[in-house]
Design a protein that fits this description.
The protein is of the alpha/beta class and about 350 residues long. The protein has one domain: NAD(P)-binding Rossmann-like Domain (Rossmann fold, 3-Layer(aba) Sandwich). The strands form four sheets. It has a seven-stranded parallel beta sheet with strand order 3-2-1-4-5-8-12, with helices on both faces. Helix 1 runs parallel beside helix 2, helix 3 packs parallel to helix 5 and helix 7 runs parallel beside helix 10. It is globular, with a radius of gyration of 20 Å.
Length: about 350
Amino acid sequence: MKRPGLPAEGQAFTKKSMNILITGGAGFIGVHTADYYLSKGNKITIFDNFSRKGTEENVKWLKQKYGTKKMAVVRGDIRHFNILKRSIPGHDVVIHLAGQVAVTTSVANPREDFEINALGTFNVLEAIRLFSPDSILLFASTNKVYGGMEQIKIIKGNNRYKYRDLPDGIPETQNLDFHSPYGCSKGAADQYIRDYHRIYGLKTVVFRQSCIYGHMQLGIEDQGWVSWFTIAAVLGKPITVYGDGMQVRDVLFVEDLIKAYDLAIQYIKVAAGQIYNVGGGPKFTLSLLELLDLLEKKLGKKIPFTFADWRPGDQPVYISNIAKIKKNLGWGPKIDVQEGTSQMIDWIVKEKDLIEKALR
């Protein structure tokens, strides 16, 4: 008997060993995804331009753990179509994680942001449409496609904001409202991915991801705030809170995210063409101030921080309604904030010297 919430077994994609290409595969989510699929005996191609700190070390770690027999590395940029059209064919699955990830960076350099997120994603789609139309494509989108959601009623709680009328969070039916160059570029990519299923029949799945965190993440102020606050708290780095610190996000440990990816691949007959909100949902939420308080208790010390102005398009609250992916694929997050942050702290303490070097 199948588990409740899962599609019928006959709908499963049952190929035992897959060839998987991961754009941005040397980054935080990418290296965890590669690790997972290599551990299952699959062949992995890491496609990355290695522009981000820590990516070289991530690939070295994978090579030390698995060797190179089932792993290839392509140094490439998604802005360059010719290298994509040579690299993508022959892969059962393409997991598209490469992108410009920070709102403030997009405001400072909107052209680069557009070329990476919008044009780069278009290049990935065209390479699949023209040269590998049977490939499954998973895309890491963002909750920023919903914009500031100013029309949603917000009330203040204790050290946090909360929705007045949406106890289960924001569903996929929420109106899109691209705010900031980053929101526009990721939103355009999100909609292109969806439409290439409708128009060309590609097997695409969009994941509108909330705040993903975990070990091996070198978070920065602009992106990866759970990671950055944890690293800064452990290592004594200065912390800036943008806004009033009561902003709330649902947070998702990276291992839970990869399980969502895997279920979408297994049940692609159900997932193809779908858009899923993927995050911690209503049960796994934090405000910035709550995270700092949690870290103070775990580390046994006071954590100093300063305040700065709100950032463009910053949502006072974003909590994913994850009912759709639970219903379609039987997925739900398992690793709570206490366990996830403990794993983060253990990794930071163990790799303190490496992290200090990477952050210079």
